């Protein structure tokens, strides 16, 4: 008997979407059967999401009952064949969290297996700096917030195009503890992003890919966005077979 996934609510207090151009073959090697990289201007799109959640709780509960956590997720924009044609979303090979609750509940009570990490952040209105340290992972991102006209990307023509690309991919797939795929859907009626200028971008996840196959492209910032998570009524595109991930 499958236990229904509870609908959860939270506020994205801060989210950095740090995005890379990746060689499509290198990206495909990190994916399970049944999904393939989305390709933009000849490249796959992958990155790391550094997110601080506030008021995480079952939908319908008052925010004061919610939980606060710092989390990181490495993600690859993917597509797969659905019953009505191609579908798009993200594949998340690795998640990390500083929250004991997220690590205990993730993959058991609620989808999303999280590994242990220490998270440090220093933030102001004009700058965000986040550092993640885990047993086999290091991420350090330092970003200045800039005006929309200062957005620069080799993948997208402007901030609107970048925003729409990531907004459309509401469904995320990730491996379970048993090696299958589980899924979550993220929805919001208040999607908004700001452009950032990266001062420092370090990620050991991408450093372990073959030389020259991953190149930082741009960073987007989200702040104070209410969101909901739910389990979409669709079957995973496949089980995991021989999946490899960069560490």
Low-confidence stretches: 239-247
> What count of domains describes the coordinates?
1
Order of helices and strands: EHEEEEEHEEEEHEEEHEE
Head-to-tail CA distance between termini: 34 Å
Largest β-sheet summary = 7 strands, mixed, barrel
For the biggest β-sheet, the strand order reads 1-4-5-6-11-12-15
Q: Residue share in helices? A: under 10%
Beta-strand portion reads over 45%
Overall radius of gyration: 17 Å
Q: Mean pLDDT score, rounded?
A: 87
Number of contiguous helices = 4
Tell me how many strands there are. 15
Going by helix content, strand content and strand pairing, the class is: mainly beta
Molecular shape: globular
Please specify the SSE layout and strand pairing:
Blueprint: E1 8-22, H1 24-28, E2 36-37, E3 39-40, E4 43-58, E5 67-82, E6 85-97, H2 100-105, E7 115-116, E8 118-123, E9 127-134, E10 137-145, H3 159-167, E11 171-175, E12 181-187, E13 194-203, H4 204-207, E14 214-222, E15 225-230
Parallel strand pairs: 6-7, 6-11
Antiparallel strand pairs: 1-4, 1-14, 1-15, 2-5, 3-4, 4-5, 5-6, 8-9, 9-10, 10-13, 11-12, 12-15, 13-14
């Amino acid at each position: 008997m499958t236990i229904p996934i509870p609908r959860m609510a939270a506020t994205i207090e801060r989210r950095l979407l740090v995005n890379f151009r990746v060689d499509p073959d290198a990206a495909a090697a990190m994916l399970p059967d049944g999904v393939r990289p989305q390709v933009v201007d000849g490249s796959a799109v992958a990155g790391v999401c550094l997110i601080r959640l506030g008021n995480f709780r079952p939908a319908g509960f008052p925010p004061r009952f919610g939980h606060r956590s710092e989390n990181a997720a490495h993600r690859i924009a993917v597509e797969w064949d659905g019953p009505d044609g191609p579908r798009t979303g993200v594949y998340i090979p690795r998640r990390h969290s500083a929250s004991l609750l997220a690590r205990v509940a993730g993959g058991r009570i609620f989808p999303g297996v999280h590994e242990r990490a220490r998270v440090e952040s220093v933030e102001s209105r004009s700058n965000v700096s986040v550092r993640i340290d885990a047993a086999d992972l290091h991420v350090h991102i330092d970003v200045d917030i800039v005006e929309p006209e200062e957005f620069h990307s080799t993948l997208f023509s402007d901030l609107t195009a970048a925003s729409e690309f990531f907004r459309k991919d509401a469904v995320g797939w990730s491996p379970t503890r048993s090696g299958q795929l589980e899924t979550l859907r993220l929805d919001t009626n208040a999607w908004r992003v700001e452009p950032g200028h990266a001062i420092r971008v370090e990620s050991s996840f991408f450093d372990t890919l073959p030389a020259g196959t991953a190149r930082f492209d741009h960073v987007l910032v989200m702040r104070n966005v209410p969101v909901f998570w739910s389990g979409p009524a669709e079957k995973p595109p496949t089980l995991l077979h021989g999946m490899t991930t960069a560490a």
